[in-house]
Amino acid sequence: MFDTGPLNDAMIDDDVFGQAATILPAAGGSIPLQIVWDIQHAHEGDIYEVPYANYVAGCRESDVAAVSNGDTLVVNSKNYRILAMEEDGQGWVNLIVDPKK
User: Fold this and answer.
1) Of 2, 8, 88, 98, which has the fewest beta carbons less than 10 angstroms from its beta carbon?
2) How many CB atoms sit inside 10 A of residue 9's CB?
3) pTM over 0.85, yes/no
4) What is the pLDDT of residue 15?
5) Cα–Cα nearest to 70, from 6, 33, 23, 29
6) Which fold, 5-98?
7) By CB neighbour count within 10 A (0-12 exposed, 13-18 middle, 19+ buried), where does 63 fall?
8) How far apart are alpha carbons 87 and 98 in whole angstroms?
9) Could you tell me the residue ranges of all domains in the chain?
């Protein structure tokens, strides 16, 4: 299996695709982290069952160990509700977020 860890680390760097963000857990506190934005289009029958594009924020799994669905991701002063987290098994997580919080 191809190890994507070094590639993910390079992408999340500020000088490449990385962007500063903060997670506000429902339990309180804040978690600063770097994310990489991606947009995936949902289709009829997808597991998220939404008729619009899903916003996806990729990040290191270690940065979101204490994060749960329903917590808030803040990017550029805009709030996004975390709908789901998809782990790749190699240290990377895609946060599926709702831009209409």
Assistant:
1) 2
2) 15
3) no
4) 61
5) 23
6) Thrombin, subunit H (2.40.10)
7) middle
8) 18
9) 5-98
